[in-house]
C-alpha cells in the first residue's frame, strides 16, 4: 500500500459517489464484482452481531434487481442525493483484496424542500484489482442514522 | 372544550367515510393515547429472547410513554415505566443492556429490576454531632415509591404489557380467532433474534394499522409483488376479525394454477419478467404455516405480526404526536432454523422494512395522505370497497377491516368518561 494505492482508492470512492449522486445506476452496478456483497446495516445490528441488514445483496445480479425496482416498481417521493465521503483509510491487503473504510454523509433534497442530513455512517470495503480497475468485492454501509426518515430507496 | 366537541363529524353512523379530522387533531390524539394505549389494551413491548438472561433489559415505548422490559434474577419478565419516582426523569438512556438494578443518575435513587425502590440517598438525613439534618419525612415509605409497574402478558415468546391492571386477559383481548393466528406464529418454539430496522414516518399512527388492514393496495401499489408473481388475484384468501373488529388477520395462499396473467388484470404484471437473482424468492414452505403462505395480523393498537413466506417480524407502532410515528421492525427466526433457513429469512427481509422492495412505498403513501389531511379541513377518506358494512370475508376485494377498526374506534372514542 502506497500513495498511488491511496490515490486510486480515493478515485474509486469519488466515482462511486458521482454515480449514486447522478442516479446513474448502471454505473453504480458496474463498480462491483460479479459475486459482490453490498449491505446497508444499522450500526446497532452491526455492533451487536445481529445479522439483519436493511438491504443485503449477495451478487451483482441482486444489485441489478434493485435497479429495476428503483426504475420500475418502487413508488416514492423523488429526491436528490449528495454524498460527501472522507478520505479512505487503508487497513490491510491480502489475497482476498484490499480492506479499507471511509466515513460518509448523505444529504437528501426533496423537490422544493430544504436539504436534510439523510444518512451518515462508514463504508467498510473490500476492493479488488480487476482488468477494468479497482472494483468493490464488498461494500458494507454501517449507518449511525438508525432512525430512517421514512424510506430509503436509492443505494447509499 | 368538553371532550365530545373534539370529535370530528362523521357523515353517518357507518365508518365508510372517515373524516380527515381523526388524523389531525392533537386533542383527539391525546384521547387516543389515553384510551387505546394507556387503558384497557395490551401493547407490544418485545420478544422474550431480547431479554434472554437475568439482568437483561430493553427500553421501548407504549404510546408515547417510555418503558423498560427487564428480566429479573428469578427469570420473571417485568415492564416498568422509565420515569424516576423522584423527579420524573427518564433515567434509562441505553436501548438495551444488562444491569443488576437501575439507578437514576440525578439523585441516585435505586430500583430493582422489578421496579421496586431500593435506595434513597440521605433518606435518614445527615447526622452532625447529635443532630440529624434533613432527610425524608419519617412516614416516607419506599414501598410506595417504586417505578410504575405494568401488567405483563407473555405468550409464545412475545411480551405485551398494559398500564391498566384491570385489563382483560391477553387471550380474551385477542379473541379466539386472532389468538389462533397469533399462536400459529408464536407457538412456543424458542425464537432467534435477527435484528432491527427503524423508521420515522410522518403520518398518523392509525394509517399504518389501516395499511395492513387494506388488501386493496398490495397488488396495485406494490408492483414488485405483482411483477414477480408473489401477489395474484387468484390467491386463496380470507379476512378475519375479532368480535370487536379491532384486530384482524389477512390470510392468503399463493395461487398455483394457470398463467398468472389470466387472473391478474393489473397493468404492471409482466409474465416474462424474471429476477436476475432468484434467491430473493427462494421460498421454502414450513410445516407451521399450515397452508397459508402469508398471514398479516394487526393487533390494535400497537403491533403488526408479519409472516410473508419465510420472513417473520413484528412491526411496532409508536406514536409521535398526531402527525408521525416510529415504526420499529424486529426480524426473528426460530432457534431450530438451520443456517440455510436463517440466510433465507435474512434475504427475504429485503422485501420488507424501510428500504423493502414492497414496504418502502407504504411509508411514502402514508406521508402523502397525511399532507392532505393536514391541509384540507373537512375532507374525508372513502372506504367503501366491498360495501359499507363490517364482516369477515373469503376474498381480498374489500376495505371491511378498515371499517371494522373505525367502528371500534368510534365505540371507544365516543364513549363518555
Automatic annotation (TrEMBL), chain A:
UniProt key word Oxidoreductase: yes
SnoaL-like domain span: 7-139
InterPro entries: NTF2-like_dom_sf, Rng_hydr_dOase-bsu, SnoaL-like
GO molecular function: dioxygenase activity
Gene Ontology biological-process entries: 3-phenylpropionate catabolic process
Listed SUPFAM superfamilies: NTF2-like (SSF54427)
Keywords, ordered alphabetically: Dioxygenase, Oxidoreductase
Family assignment from sequence similarity: Belongs to the bacterial ring-hydroxylating dioxygenase beta subunit family.
Protein name, entry field: Aromatic-ring-hydroxylating dioxygenase subunit beta
Biological source species: Ideonella alba
UniProt lineage: Bacteria, Pseudomonadati, Pseudomonadota, Betaproteobacteria, Burkholderiales
TrEMBL record, chain B:
Domain Rieske: 44-161
Gene3D superfamilies the record matches: Naphthalene 1,2-dioxygenase Alpha Subunit, Chain A, domain 1 (3.90.380.10), Rieske [2Fe-2S] iron-sulphur domain (2.102.10.10)
InterPro entries assigned: AhdA1c-like_alpha_C (IPR043264), ARHD_Rieske_2Fe_2S (IPR015881), Rieske_2Fe-2S (IPR017941), Rieske_2Fe-2S_sf (IPR036922), Ring_hydroxy_dOase_asu_C_dom (IPR015879), Rng_hydr_dOase-A (IPR001663)
GO molecular function: 2 iron, 2 sulfur cluster binding; dioxygenase activity; iron ion binding
Residues making up the signal peptide according to the UniProt record: none
Keyword set, alphabetical order: 2Fe-2S, Dioxygenase, Iron, Iron-sulfur, Metal-binding, NAD, Oxidoreductase
One Pfam family in the UniProt entry: Rieske
Superkingdom in the source lineage: Bacteria
PROSITE patterns: RIESKE (PS51296), RING_HYDROXYL_ALPHA (PS00570)
Family: Belongs to the bacterial ring-hydroxylating dioxygenase alpha subunit family.
Name used for this protein in its record: Aromatic ring-hydroxylating dioxygenase subunit alpha
Organism: Ideonella alba
Amino acid at each position: 500500500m502506497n500513495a498511488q494505492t491511496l490515490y486510486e482508492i480515493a478515485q474509486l470512492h469519488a466515482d462511486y459517489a458521482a454515480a449514486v449522486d447522478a442516479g446513474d445506476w448502471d454505473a453504480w452496478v458496474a463498480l462491483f464484482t460479479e459475486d459482490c456483497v453490498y449491505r446497508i446495516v444499522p450500526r446497532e445490528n452491526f455492533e451487536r452481531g445481529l445479522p439483519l441488514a436493511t438491504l443485503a445483496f449477495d451478487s451483482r445480479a441482486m444489485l441489478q434487481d434493485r435497479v429495476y425496482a428503483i426504475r420500475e416498481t418502487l413508488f416514492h417521493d423523488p429526491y436528490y442525493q449528495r454524498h460527501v465521503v472522507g478520505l479512505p483509510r487503508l487497513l490491510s491487503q491480502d489475497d482476498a483484496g484490499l480492506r479499507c473504510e471511509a466515513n460518509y454523509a448523505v444529504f437528501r433534497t426533496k423537490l422544493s424542500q430544504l436539504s436534510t442530513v439523510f444518512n451518515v455512517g462508514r463504508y467498510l470495503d473490500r476492493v479488488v484489482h480487476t482488468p477494468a480497475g479497482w472494483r468493490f468485492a464488498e461494500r458494507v454501509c454501517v449507518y449511525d442514522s438508525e432512525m430512517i426518515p421514512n424510506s430509503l430507496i436509492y443505494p447509499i | 372544550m368538553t371532550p365530545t366537541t373534539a370529535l370530528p363529524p362523521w357523515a353517518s353512523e357507518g365508518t365508510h367515510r372517515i373524516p380527515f379530522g381523526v388524523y389531525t387533531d392533537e386533542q383527539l390524539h391525546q384521547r387516543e393515547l389515553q384510551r387505546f394505549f394507556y387503558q384497557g389494551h395490551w401493547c407490544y413491548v418485545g420478544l422474550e429472547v431480547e431479554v434472554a438472561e437475568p439482568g437483561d433489559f430493553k427500553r421501548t415505548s407504549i404510546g408515547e410513554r417510555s418503558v423498560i422490559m427487564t428480566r429479573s434474577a428469578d427469570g420473571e419478565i417485568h415492564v416498568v415505566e422509565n420515569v424516576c419516582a423522584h423527579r420524573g426523569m427518564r433515567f434509562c438512556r441505553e436501548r438495551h443492556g444488562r444491569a443488576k438494578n437501575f439507578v437514576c443518575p440525578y439523585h441516585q435513587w435505586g430500583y430493582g429490576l422489578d421496579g421496586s425502590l431500593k435506595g434513597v440517598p440521605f433518606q435518614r438525613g445527615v447526622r452532625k454531632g447529635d443532630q440529624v439534618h434533613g432527610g425524608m419525612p419519617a412516614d416516607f415509605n419506599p414501598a410506595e415509591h417504586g417505578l410504575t409497574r405494568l401488567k405483563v402478558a407473555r405468550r409464545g415468546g412475545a411480551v405485551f404489557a398494559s398500564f391498566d391492571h384491570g385489563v382483560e386477559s391477553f387471550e380474551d383481548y385477542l379473541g379466539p380467532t386472532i389468538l389462533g393466528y397469533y399462536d400459529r406464529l408464536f407457538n412456543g418454539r424458542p425464537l432467534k433474534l435477527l435484528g432491527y430496522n427503524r423508521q420515522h414516518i410522518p403520518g398518523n399512527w392509525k394509517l399504518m394499522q389501516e395499511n395492513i388492514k387494506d388488501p386493496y393496495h398490495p397488488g396495485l401499489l406494490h408492483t414488485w409483488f405483482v411483477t414477480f408473481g408473489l401477489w395474484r388475484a387468484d390467491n386463496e384468501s380470507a379476512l378475519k376479525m375479532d368480535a370487536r373488529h379491532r384486530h384482524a388477520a389477512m390470510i392468503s395462499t399463493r395461487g398455483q394454477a394457470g398463467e398468472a396473467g389470466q387472473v391478474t388484470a393489473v397493468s404492471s404484471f409482466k409474465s416474462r419478467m424474471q429476477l436476475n437473482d432468484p434467491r430473493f424468492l427462494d421460498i421454502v414452505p414450513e410445516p407451521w404455516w399450515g397452508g397459508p403462505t402469508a398471514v398479516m395480523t394487526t393487533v390494535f393498537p400497537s403491533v403488526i405480526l408479519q409472516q410473508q413466506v419465510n420472513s417473520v417480524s413484528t412491526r411496532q407502532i409508536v406514536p409521535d404526536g398526531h402527525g408521525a410515528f416510529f415504526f420499529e421492525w424486529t426480524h426473528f427466526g426460530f432457534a431450530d432454523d438451520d443456517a440455510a433457513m436463517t440466510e433465507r429469512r435474512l434475504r427475504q427481509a429485503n422485501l420488507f422494512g424501510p428500504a423493502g422492495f414492497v414496504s418502502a412505498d407504504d411509508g411514502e403513501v402514508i406521508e402523502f395522505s397525511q399532507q392532505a389531511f393536514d391541509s384540507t379541513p373537512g375532507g374525508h377518506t372513502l372506504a367503501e370497497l366491498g360495501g359499507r358494512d363490517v364482516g369477515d370475508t373469503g376474498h381480498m376485494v374489500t376495505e371491511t377491516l378498515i371499517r371494522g377498526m373505525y367502528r371500534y374506534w368510534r365505540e371507544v372514542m365516543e364513549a363518555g368518561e
